[in-house]
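Thread: "does anyone have the structure for this chain?"

Original post by V.I.:
We have the sequence but no experimental structure in hand. Need at least a predicted one for the grant figures.
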Amino acid sequence: MKVTNDPVGAAIQDFRSGNQAASIVVESNLTDDDEIPVAYLFRTEEEMPELEQLALEQCRGSVLDVGAGAGCHSLVLQERGVEVTALDLSAGAVQAMQEQGIRQVLQQDIFKLSGVRYDTLLLLMNGIGIAGDLEGLERFLEHTKTLLEPGGQILLESSDILYMFEEEDGSVLLDLNAGYYGEVVYNMRYKQHQTGAFKWLFIDPAILQDYATAHGYTFEQLYEGEYGNYLARLALHQA
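Reply from O.Q.:
Generated one for you, tokens below.
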């Protein structure tokens, strides 16, 4: 029986088999369908946005690349001699990373990961989205304390998507009964594969700072992009 819930992994495998035009369809409750060209998941360091290049420069010690996908960030770090572990839920992605020579690869849900500690947790491509919602963010910030070495850091990318609710006159229209506006529902499709609906969190930096501080982290914004996306460093207060 074929696994039909690994669209990212299936698309990555097809791309590596020669389908250079492969793309993953992304459905959301917020916008029209979008597509991720699989080629983008294999970008080189030179092709990476400035935010990602800065994040890689800021990595220190042992690194856990969370939601590593096709492994482009892990490959750069490994080539630099960094001790990096690439983590992803997708079996197809994990296989592709192993085939590309990434030495330490884990097929695992970060919320179930235990018994290991790292100096840096790296979450790029809006990686903090795995928290799902604000309640999940609290869970994430508590769980990552068990994964960080003393003085460890989380480097994460997210976006403030308030601009998506702006009217033509510049006002913002929000449904105050619908919860936090950055909680989005996605489904990803590729051929016969689809994830099914899952929640993904986009969090504005001011709210992230509030949550980080409440859970014992310092907050530092390292970069702000043109479209509301940013890179932040959360560091555990030294005991």
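V.I.: this helps a lot. The CA atoms of residues 8 and 82 lie 26 Å apart.
O.Q.: and The mean pLDDT is 91.
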